[in-house]
Amino acid sequence: MQRQGSFGGSAAFRIRVTGGVLLVAHLVLVAWLTLRPLDVPWVTPPNVHPLAGIRADLALGGREAARRLGEGLALLAPLGVLLPAVHGRLTVSPLASLVRTAAAGALISLGITLLQTGVPGRVADVDALLLNTAGVVLAHLAVVPAGRAWLRRREARDAREGAESGARRPVTLQEELSQGRTPTIPRVGIAP
């Protein structure tokens, strides 16, 4: 039994399960990296002015700025690939997929930022939220459309080969549940 529009067979199941396991592992790693208390002699004030921290990082010079900005982009970037893999759909609007993934990445980053306010040595930073979300979007754009196109071509090739060999194609959930018109019961009058 397969959902219509999802990629079929055991390969799809393996991709979804692997994506789910990697997603959980990545989120555990992110929580460990971002929610551990820091032993610092002082704490900087929270950054609530968008792009102020990014400008300060750029003022540090090329290598240090690239390292700090790269860390912000890379922290949640795997979510841009893992969330669509767990979803497991091939026939979805690229824009809708990007918007859903970006929104999920932004919400996860916001959740981390809010949780950090209660952790000693950690402060809220709006630029971290912006960089994390941008990393999710960039990873999604770089991998997901090409990956889905490759999987669609592979599925079409497998379907052609199956049709040529006379193999029976898998039945979709909609086809399996469709049993014709729903029967109706004639109305019976109620006696007074």
Q: How many separate domains make up the residues?
A: 1
Structural class based on helices, strands and sheet pairing? mainly alpha
Helix content: 55-70%
- Segments where pLDDT lies below 50 for 5+ residues? 1-5
From the N-terminal CA to the C-terminal CA, the straight-line distance is: 50 Å
Q: Give the tally of β-strands.
A: 0
Radius of gyration (Å): 24 Å
Q: What characterizes the major β-sheet?
A: none
Task: Name the descriptors.
single chain, 192 residues, mainly alpha, extended, transmembrane, Teicoplanin_resist-assoc, VanZ-like
Account of the protein in words:
- By secondary structure, the chain is mainly alpha-helical.
- The protein has one domain.
- Helices cover 65% and strands 0% of the residues.
- The chain contains seven helices and no strands.
- Helix 4 (79-87) crosses helix 5 (94-116) and helix 5 (94-116) packs antiparallel against helix 6 (126-165).
- It is extended and about 80 Å long.
- The protein starts with 8 loop residues before the first helix and ends in a 15-residue tail after the last helix.
What layout of secondary structure does this protein have?
Blueprint: H1 9-34, H2 52-59, H3 62-74, H4 79-87, H5 94-116, H6 126-165, H7 173-177
Helix pairs in contact: 1-4, 2-3, 3-6, 4-5, 4-6, 5-6
